[in-house]
Each structure stands twice: as C-alpha cells, then as structure tokens.
Amino acid sequence: MDSWQRFLVPVSLDRVSLEAVHVAGAVAKPRRGTLHLLHVIEVGRSLPLNIELEHESRRAQQVIERARLAAADAGCSNVRTAVVQAREAGPAILEEARTHHIDVIVLGLPPFQGEDRPFAIGPTAEFLLRHAPCEVWLIRRPMRDISRGGHEGP
C-alpha cells in the first residue's frame, strides 16, 4: 500500500476509463505519485504496425487530453501521457507497466455484452490479471446503471 507511487491508467472514450483516472488520481495525489495515462491504438493484422493512422491519432490526442483534465480534476499534477500502436491492448499495457515500473494498473471496464455473461471482464482485463507484474484494479460502473441500458460513451 505504501509503495503505490506509479499508476498506469489505460484510457479510451468510455466514461468508465475517466472514472479510473479519478480513482488513480485520488490515490496518487496524497502520495505525490505519478499518473501514467496510456491510449493504445489497436492496428489490425492486415496493416503494418507502424502505419500512420491520422484519424485514430487525432482521436487518441482527444482521449489523452480528456484524461489529463480528469487527472487535474482529481488534483493530480504529476501526469505523463503516451499513445502507442499495437496489435492488442493487453500486451502494450503490460510493456508500458514494465518499462515504467508501475505499481498499480487501474483499468476501467466497459459494460458487459449480453445477459448471458454479466460478469465478463473482457480479454484485456483478463490478460492483465494473468500477466501484470503489479496490482491491477478494475473499475466498473454499478450493475444497476449498466442493466438500465446506460450508455458508456463520452
């Protein structure tokens, strides 16, 4: 608990990823910790990994800026940002966590898909829970909000 200094928050357009930024920021602030905000642009296997994706890059900068504002709202001023391109988000997040010696990954979970799997966490969260070298905190909106069909958009 006392060793929580470096927090990695993967961010996207989902509102819950901004909630993850608020949670990480609130914990990091009194510790004078660092928030690492990461947006992963997933590149399809039919394209070269280093392809320039203009639209996705612009959107990524918007996502990062929104996350930076959420961190400021939480009172966290020590913020670093990154945008990376990868085939899959999980391994990219893991690499970032290892590179920066992250203590905690705080991941917002999008709403579940379908009534048959209400507690599914998705492939990225599952990958991180299996392979992360640090703690992984999962943030999900209350089930009552999700079950009402609440939209998780911006």
UniProtKB/TrEMBL annotation:
Domain UspA stretches: 5-140
Record Pfam families: Usp (PF00582)
Superkingdom, natural source: Bacteria
Gene3D superfamilies attached to this UniProt entry: HUPs
Name of the protein this chain belongs to: Nucleotide-binding universal stress UspA family protein
Source species of the chain: Tepidiforma thermophila (strain KCTC 52669 / CGMCC 1.13589 / G233)
